[in-house]
């Protein structure tokens, strides 16, 4: 199960956090990687870690909010490996603050990266997957302000709610083409510099206090986000169509 030997896996936002964790997890299972980000030093470091662990891949600068850059990145992936099997649409930015008081321009920026970026990625990934008879796409949503409301993070959350909606509709469109599209809605991972850790650090919240927000009583581990992404990207998950897999230590179940 979860064999990615020789599979071509594209990951956006690979310079740190989930993207880096997932790159290493796919590489450990034999995938050939195409990594992008706008933070080039971090992206190159992820590639260095991948190759040091015996993996194969390349890193390329690509801003997912610019469709031409997404198209070029998918094109570079196919030029390098001849195909694309998995797309992990993970890149996102966060601008937190009181939902109704943030500058409206912040919403434009968030929509451009988090929502349109995922759309551009799916569009160009699917176009390529159709030429080889199938594939799998995993979109990173969030529980924040999409499944639950968070008064001081509503704009970010609205884009993630949009990702969930887009995931379902796109998944239905291509369900019969052997292309699976699903989303992950997570919260509470303790991964260096990830969006959650930046948030709790920014609010002066200790790890111990944050762990108390989750019924499981602890924060998430890197291997637990990797496992969820590997599952949705795997051949074994092809009957999952437009699913939103929630991995949040019980936060939303409560
Ligand atoms: N960490 C969590 O607990 C958590 C919770 C819910 C959702 N998520 C989602 O999971 C994904 C990864 O989270 P993370 O914590 O690793 O985030 P992160 O902020 O650590 O990493 C995101 C990466 O995306 C890159 N990026 C930003 N804008 C980009 C653009 N326009 N083009 C290309 N790359 C760009 C950043 O440079 C960064 O490397 C995000 O979509 C995030 O919203 C994370």
Automatic annotation (TrEMBL):
Keywords of the record, alphabetical order, are: Oxidoreductase
Q: Which GO terms describe its molecular function?
A: oxidoreductase activity
- Top-level lineage group: Bacteria
Concerning SUPFAM superfamilies, the annotation shows:
NAD(P)-binding Rossmann-fold domains
Entries under InterPro entries matching the protein: NAD(P)-bd_dom_sf, Sc_DH/Rdtase_CS, SDR_fam
Pfam families named among the record's database cross-references: adh_short_C2
Q: Could you say which protein family the record assigns here?
A: Belongs to the short-chain dehydrogenases/reductases (SDR) family.
Can you say what this protein is called? Short-chain dehydrogenase
């Amino acid at each position: 199960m979860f064999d990615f030997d020789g599979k071509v896996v594209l990951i956006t936002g690979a310079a740190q956090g989930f993207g880096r964790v997932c790159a290493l997890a796919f590489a450990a299972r034999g995938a050939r990687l195409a990594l992008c980000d706008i933070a080039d030093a971090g992206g190159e470091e992820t590639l260095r870690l991948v190759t040091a662990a015996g993996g194969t891949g390349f890193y390329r600068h690509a801003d997912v909010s610019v469709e031409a850059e997404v198209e070029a990145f998918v094109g570079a992936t196919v030029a390098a490996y001849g195909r694309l099997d998995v797309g992990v649409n993970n890149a996102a930015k966060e601008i937190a603050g009181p939902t109704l008081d943030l500058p409206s321009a912040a919403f434009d920026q968030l929509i451009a990266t988090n929502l349109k970026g995922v759309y551009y990625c799916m569009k160009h990934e699917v176009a390529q997957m159709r030429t080889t008879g199938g594939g799998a796409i995993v979109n990173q949503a969030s529980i924040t302000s999409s499944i639950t409301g968070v008064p001081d993070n509503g704009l970010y959350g609205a884009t993630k709610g949009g990702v969930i909606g887009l995931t379902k509709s796109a998944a239905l469109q291509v369900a019969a083409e052997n292309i699976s599209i699903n989303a992950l809605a997570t919260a509470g991972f303790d991964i260096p510099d990830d969006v959650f850790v930046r948030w709790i650090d920014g609010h002066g919240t200790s790890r111990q206090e944050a762990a108390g927000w989750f019924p499981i009583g602890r924060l998430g581990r890197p291997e637990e986000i990797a496992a969820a992404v590997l599952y949705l990207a795997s051949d074994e998950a092809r009957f999952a169509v437009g699913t939103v897999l929630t991995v949040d230590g019980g936060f939303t179940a409560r």
